[in-house]
# Entry
Amino acid sequence: MRRHAAAITAAVSLVLLALPCASSLAQPTGIKRTVITRGDISVPNREAVVAHVELAPGATAGRHTHPGDEITYFLDGEGELLIDGAPPRRVKAGEAIIIPAGVVHDARNPGSTTTKLVGVYVVEKGQPLATPVK
# Structure
C-alpha cells in the first residue's frame, strides 16, 4: 500500500510541474492544476510531468491536446471524459484514463463535489504541456 501511494504521489508530482509551464493554455475558471514534479525519462527528447488537478463541480478543462501521452488517475469525485468522435465516458475515483498524444479532448465535472486527480504526462521537451483547441 505504501509503495502504491508513493507511486501515485510521484506521478501526480510530474503532471503538476508540467501544467504551470503550459502558458499557452489559459486555466479555465474552476480548475486548479499544481505541478508536483517533472523530469527526464529514458526516451530521448521526452520528459514526464506529474500534476495534481482539482475540477470544481460543473467546471470543464476546455478542449485541448498534449504533445505526448496523458495518464490520469481519479483520486476523488467523478468526471466525464469528452474525446472528439467518441461518446462521453464517465470516470470515478479509483479509475484511470489514458489519452494518446494529439487526441482532442476535454474533461467535465458533472458531480456536486470537487474532482481530484493525478495526471502523468510523457511529453516532448520544450513543448507546451497542453494546447487549446477551438
Residues 2-18 form the longest helix (17 residues).
